[in-house]
Amino acid sequence: MTKKILVIEDEVQICSNIQQILGLSDFQTVSANNGLDGLRLAKSEKPDLICCDIMMPDLDGYGVLKALRQDPETDSIPVILLTAKVERSDLRHGMELGADDYITKPFSPEELLKAIEMRLARVAKPKLMKQQYEKERQQNIKLKQEIQVSQQKLEETKQLADMRNEVLEKLLQDLSNPLSNINMAVHMLKQVQSDNDRDRYLKILQEEYDREIMLLNEMKNLQALLTPENAKILQKFNLLHHSK
Question: In this predicted structure, what is the pLDDT of residue 71?
Fold first, then answer.
């Protein structure tokens, strides 16, 4: 991605030269010839880096730097000061205001480009680390969500299995009663002497057979109906108990 550089320099020819040097190195440039215009462009253009001369009328480079650092919209933009002054006190004053680097005039294209590239690299590293951290954080959130969904599905599956076992156990108990009555009726039928007794036990056999068929049909229907969604509804109305 092409980086944007704001050049703030009151000497028009120097400003133009700097822009040409940066343009040949594939940087996008915007420029201002005074500090006030430079501040305005810094807020509107959001450059990746600012090269700012110190000695300018009205608002000098120190004033520009101070204003940039006091504004939340521009306080993190790297600033390289351009100066013909090399006194230690001037350098210290600029650094105290928040300058990221100094280049003394006259400077070569190589010096300018090296300073800019080094400063951009220092800015890019924390950004890459932050992006990597955010990516990993999002991946962890997604993984936790997937684990929660899997755990929920596993719990629902376990609850459904327990409920099915509960229903089948109850139905098996219910099935045993008609079988017992059928067995007893068959035994008694073998011993009857009268037609009335034989008819009575045949009727019992028929009734218990019908009851057994009905229970088997209920079992098939429940097997089809007992889905996780229906199980929750049955639980809600206390038609099924939660497993212990």
Answer: 93
